[in-house]
Amino acid sequence: MSLELCHLIDLPQIPDARGNLTFVEGRRHVPFEIQRVFYIYDVPCGGARGGHALKTCHQVLIAVAGSLDVIVKDDRGGQRRFQLDSPRRGLHLPPRIWREMENFSAGSVCLVLASTPFEEADYYRSYADYCLAEKATP
Ligand code: TYD
To answer: Which domain holds residue 119?
Structure first.
C-alpha cells in the first residue's frame, strides 16, 4: 500500500480555561466506524512497539500524552517518519502499512482507534511475510 495514504488528521479542540477537550467521532473525524480503542502506556525508556502490518484494519494513532515517533514502511524500501506530539492530531494508517513506534517520551500514552475488533489473523508479524504478501497483491 502507498505510504502517501498515511496522513495526519487535525482533530477538533474545545478550548476552555478549565482545560481543553478533544473528541473523535467515527466516519466524521476518522474515515471509518470505530470498533475498538486501545492505548499503549508505561513504555520503558528506549522501548519500541509495533513491528507489524494489518491486513484489513484501519487505525488512527493519537499521542494523548507526551510524544512518540511512528515509522511507516512499504515493501519497496519506502519509509516515512511521523512525530506525534499533540492530543489534537491523529495519524491515519490504512491497512497493509508496516509500522514501528519508538522514541516514546516519559509518561506518554498512545491512543489507537481501530476499525475492527482484535484478530490475530489480521496481522503480519514478520516484515518478510508482509513484503511477500504485498508483492503478491495487484
Ligand atoms: P501488539 O499489537 O503486538 O502491540 P504493539 O503493536 O503495541 O507492539 O499487541 C500486543 C499483545 O496484545 C498481543 O498479544 C495481542 C494483544 N492485543 C489484544 O489482545 N487486543 C488488542 O486490541 C491489541 C491491540 C493487542
So the answer is: 3-135
**Is the pTM higher than 0.85?**
yes
pLDDT tens per residue, range 56-81? 999 999 999 999 999 999 999 999 99
- Distance from CA of residue 114 to its chain's centroid? 9
CB 23 less than 6 A from any atom of ligand 1: no
**How many domains would you assign to the chain?**
1
CATH code, 39:
2.60.120.10
Atom of ligand 1 nearest to the CA of 114: 22
- Nearest atom, ligand 1, residue 125 CA: 3
> Each residue of 15-33: b (16+ CB within 10 Å) or e?
eeeeeeebebeeeebbebe
Q: Given pLDDT bands bounded at 50, 70 and 90, which one contains residue 15?
A: very high
pLDDT band at 49 (very low <50, low <70, confident <90, very high): very high
